[in-house]
Write a structure and sequence with these properties.
The chain is globular, with a radius of gyration of 16 Å. The protein contains 2 helices and 7 strands; from the N terminus they run αβββββββα. Strand 1 and strand 2 form a beta hairpin. By secondary structure, it is mainly β. It has a 6-stranded antiparallel β-barrel with strand order 2-3-4-7-6-5. Helix content is 14%, strand content 46%. Mean pLDDT is 81; it is low at 1-17.
Length: 106
């Protein structure tokens, strides 16, 4: 067998991870979101994540620029702001960069 066959076999054993052209990893996971400073939160569905933010489906809209915290598996509570809101989808920009691999492989 050639070295190329070994490469193909190794790729087949890796977890399926989809990355879009902007460097965001597509995911399907649940997280907890709360307004900054509040103890209570609500469940959201995270659809993609990058080092600088994520896109999630929310049960109700939040105003752009609202300070929020989102609890992500492998990282805990991460601070950010609502960057945009369209229907039930919202973009959250993190206050500090994260390592998306910590979420994806957790």
């Amino acid at each position: 067998m050639s070295g190329r066959d070994d490469e193909i076999r190794a790729l087949g054993s890796q977890p399926d991870k989809r990355r879009d052209l902007r460097g965001r990893d597509e995911v399907a996971m649940f997280a907890r979101l709360r307004l900054a400073g509040q103890a209570d939160g609500f469940d959201v569905s995270v659809r993609n994540v990058s080092g600088g933010g994520l896109m999630a489906e929310l049960p109700h809209p939040l105003a752009p620029d609202s300070a929020v915290e989102i609890e992500l598996a492998g990282l805990g509570w991460v601070a950010g702001r609502i960057a945009w809101q369209i229907d039930r989808r919202a973009g959250i920009a993190f206050d500090e960069l994260i390592d998306p691999a910590a979420i994806i492989h957790h």
